[in-house]
Amino acid sequence: MKFILPSACLLVITLFFACKTDTKLPVSEDSMAESVVAQYDESKAKAFGADEYGMKKYVMAFLKKGPNRELDSLKAAELQAAHMQNIGAMAEAGKLVLAGPFFGDGELRGIYIFDVRSIEEAEKLTNSDPAIQAGSLAMELKEWYGSAALMAVNDIHMSIAKENP
């Protein structure tokens, strides 16, 4: 019985300090210098097609394994090169905002994010892909609402990539 009271007091003190909300973590000067207070930039918002929330509609394409995956290594390499060339052409035309493969060998192979007004327009672009034409890949298209800042990704990428695929 004599251990219950000190144990209860210790528990209450521990809970008190654990629940304090005004405890501040130390912040280094470096991390403060890195934090940026965002300011609305109307010209950027207009250039990127942003709405009042800084967002816009895109069409996302999920690249999936297609029915025709049985290619010899030479044909597969040629098809991959043509697929990559098509990706570059769509990006250069300003229609493809983002593209990339998924890791592993699952059913889902990669994504495209298109800056287009409709699924039909994205479907036309999708159908220009040699891997789609060959049946090596299939696409599922969905409208998606995301940050208009994605429109800057390709320019930023070009400034940080040592090599282009």
Keywords:
single chain, 165 residues, alpha+beta, four-stranded antiparallel beta sheet, disordered N terminus
The proportion of strand residues reads 15-25%
Would you identify the regions where 5 or more consecutive residues have pLDDT less than 50? 1-25
Largest sheet: 4 strands, antiparallel
Q: What is the typical, i.e. mean, pLDDT? A: 82
Please state the CA-atom Rg, rounded to the nearest Å: 25 Å
CATH topology of one domain: Alpha-Beta Plaits
Query: What global shape is seen?
Result: elongated
> What is the fourth-level CATH superfamily of one domain?
Dimeric alpha+beta barrel
The number of distinct helices, counting runs of at least 4 residues, comes to 7
Multimerization state = single chain
- CATH level 1 name of one domain: Alpha Beta
Structural class: alpha+beta
Order of helices and strands: HHHEHEEHHEH
State the end-to-end CA separation: 74 Å
CATH architecture of one domain: 2-Layer Sandwich
Q: Helical residue percent? A: 40-55%
